[in-house]
């Protein structure tokens, strides 16, 4: 293993120093058990997490809980659901106290007079045809109207096997709306026919993602190394899965030996007491998990493993920068 300064030139060393000071400490919060959509393959409902806890309705308890999370060292609150925009008073309780990211389906617009710089990630499950098949509604046209030109919003484009070879049309629409996009993959938790991945489809998608990053560098927030890892499930000869995942709730983590993991990470249910197993599904087979944030975090917590060559360390820096941009720790 070599040192950072021995592996990097001055420009890359500046990039490394900018992110090495961030010390991101995140946790994930189910803001509500309710949603205004029911998407086929949504891990929250398919795993029964929506019924795992009785939703806390007292805003003062949310506020006290958030203060305790802040004292615990959390400096990034990732709000999911259900649909967080159904409970904007809870979103505001986080926003007033912590750096906050809100995942939404985009059907309800975050009011910018109330949340001027809240980072919003808008879920998108393919083109209009796939959205109708998986979500029962074309949310894309609605969310584009709500967030066009918003510099604090971007699309979380969950690419399905149907989208392989067709994703550029969606990326162009996002670009034309003045928005950014980050690509991830459908895990198909509910086993919808026609939406399973094959090795060839994953290989083709990796090439397509690389091409989209090259063609639309001002729109696509990504890296080739991330594309390689998310489509192969491998990093430096290791395979992603339960033994490797860094995004397991810390108090529930009994893995021995313990892997490299996110410090003090917890995925909280909406009763503010119950903890979920990990950043996604209680029932998902980790060996087939395609969650983008989990794979990014896998890279980020394994810096030492990337100190063997200049290329490896530069790959690590690019993934860390991507994560930091998506959660507004550094600018686009």
Q: Order of helices and strands, N to C? A: HHEHHEHEEHHEHEHHEEEEHH
> What's the gyration radius in Å?
19 Å
Total domains? 1
Question: Which band does the percent of strand residues land in?
Answer: 5-15%
Instruction: Label the CATH architecture.
Output: Alpha-Beta Barrel
Number of strands: 10
- Residue-averaged pLDDT, rounded? 93
What is the fold named in CATH at topology level? TIM Barrel
**Lateral strand order in the biggest sheet:** 6-5-4-3-2-1-9-10
Number of helices: 12
* Fraction of helical residues: 25-40%
Task: Indicate the low-confidence ranges by residue numbers.
Answer: none
Distance between the termini: 31 Å
Mind summarizing the main beta sheet? 8 strands, mixed
CATH class: Alpha Beta
Shape: globular
Helix/strand class: alpha/beta
Characterization of the model:
The chain is 36% helix and 13% strand. By secondary structure, the protein is α/β, with parallel strands linked by helices. Helix 8 links the parallel strand 5 and strand 6. The longest helix is centred in the middle third of the chain and has 17 residues, at 199-215. It is globular and about 55 Å long. The mean pLDDT is 93.
Give the SSE layout.
Layout (H helix, E strand, L loop, with lengths): L3 H4 L2 H11 L5 E5 L12 H4 L12 H13 L4 E5 L7 H8 L4 E5 L14 E6 L3 H8 L3 H9 L5 E7 L7 H10 L3 E6 L13 H17 L8 H9 L1 E2 L2 E2 L27 E2 L6 E2 L15 H9 L9 H17 L6
Parallel strand pairs: 1-2, 1-9, 2-3, 3-4, 4-5, 5-6
Antiparallel strand pairs: 7-8, 9-10
């Amino acid at each position: 293993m070599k040192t950072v300064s021995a592996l990097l030139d001055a420009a890359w060393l500046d990039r490394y120093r900018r992110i090495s000071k961030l010390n991101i400490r995140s946790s994930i919060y189910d803001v509500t058990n309710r949603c205004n959509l029911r998407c086929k393959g949504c891990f929250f409902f398919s795993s029964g997490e929506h019924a795992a806890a009785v939703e806390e309705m007292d805003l003062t308890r949310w506020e006290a809980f958030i203060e305790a999370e802040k004292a615990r060292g959390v400096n990034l609150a990732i709000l999911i659901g259900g649909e967080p925009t159904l409970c904007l008073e809870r979103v505001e309780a986080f926003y007033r106290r912590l750096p906050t990211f809100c995942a939404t389906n985009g059907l309800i617009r975050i009011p910018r007079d109330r949340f001027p710089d809240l980072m919003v990630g808008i879920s998108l499950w393919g083109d209009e045809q796939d959205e109708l098949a998986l979500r029962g509604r074309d949310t894309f046209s609605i969310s584009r109207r709500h967030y066009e030109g918003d510099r604090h919003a971007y699309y979380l484009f969950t690419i399905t096997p149907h989208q392989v070879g067709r994703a550029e049309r969606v990326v162009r629409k996002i670009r034309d709306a003045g928005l950014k996009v980050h690509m991830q993959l459908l895990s198909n938790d509910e086993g919808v026919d026609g939406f399973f991945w094959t090795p060839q489809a994953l290989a083709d998608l990796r090439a397509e993602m690389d091409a989209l990053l090259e063609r639309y560098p001002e729109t696509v927030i990504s890296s080739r190394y991330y594309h390689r890892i998310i489509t192969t499930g491998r990093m430096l000869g290791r395979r992603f899965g339960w033994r490797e995942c860094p995004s397991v709730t810390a108090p529930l983590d009994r893995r021995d030996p313990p892997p490299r993991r996110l410090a003090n990470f917890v995925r909280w249910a909406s009763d503010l007491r119950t903890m979920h197993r990990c950043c996604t599904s209680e029932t998902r087979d980790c060996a087939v998990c395609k969650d983008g944030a989990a794979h990014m975090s896998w890279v980020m917590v394994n810096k030492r493993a990337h100190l063997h060559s200049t290329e490896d360390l530069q790959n690590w820096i690019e993934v860390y920068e991507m994560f930091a941009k998506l959660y507004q720790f550094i600018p686009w």
